[in-house]
Design goal:
Helix content is about 25%, strand content about 40%. It has one helix at about 1-40, and strands spanning about 60, 65-75, 75-85, 95-100, 105-110, 120-125, 135-145, 155-165.
Length: about 170
């Protein structure tokens, strides 16, 4: 009966004598693992495509999201610049601008918009073939997508009454 007790005590003594070095190596290993986890959370990789670290977001506030051109003669190109301010604490990027039709061409701020700074989206509308003798109301949209912004998507709109004075030639 005494032999089995010794078999239990001996391994415990050996483990306790090695525990200091084992704790140090375990602690070091845990620290390296934690650093690796933090690093991987802050870096987008193929295994971790989305950055999961908390980031400081910007936000956008537009001066206007709807513009009325009013009465426009057919064949004229009209343009409006939609401007916005970054009201957040991080930089904002315009990732995509998509006009609702081929009669609208856009240009926009390509660089990062710092907090407190302004960005612009210019919409140019070609009225050729869009009018009528009594005036035809044209309503067009532009979809804008943002990165690093609390506002991820916004739709800008403009309207115009297009008159062609009875001419049927496009």
């Amino acid at each position: 009966m005494r032999l089995p007790k010794i078999l239990w005590v001996l391994p415990l003594l050996l483990l306790s004598s090695c525990s200091d070095t084992k704790e140090e190596s375990t602690s070091q290993s845990n620290n390296e693992s934690a650093e690796s986890t933090i690093e991987s959370a802050n870096t987008a990789t193929s295994d971790n495509p989305q950055n999961q670290a908390e980031t400081v977001l910007g936000d956008v506030q537009f001066k206007d999201t709807l513009f009325m051109f009013g009465r426009v003669e057919e064949g004229v190109e009209v343009e409006h610049v939609f401007s916005f301010k970054n009201t957040g604490k991080g930089e904002v990027y315009i990732s995509q601008v998509s006009p609702g039709c081929t009669c609208t061409v856009t240009d926009y701020t390509k660089d990062a918009i710092a907090p407190g700074k302004e960005g612009k989206i210019k919409a140019t509308f070609d009225t050729k073939g869009k009018g009528g003798p009594g005036g035809v109301l044209n309503e067009k949209t532009v979809d804008v997508y943002f990165q690093n912004s609390a506002t991820e998507h916004i739709v800008l709109k403009f309207k115009a009454y297009i008159f062609n004075n009875g001419d049927t030639n496009p």
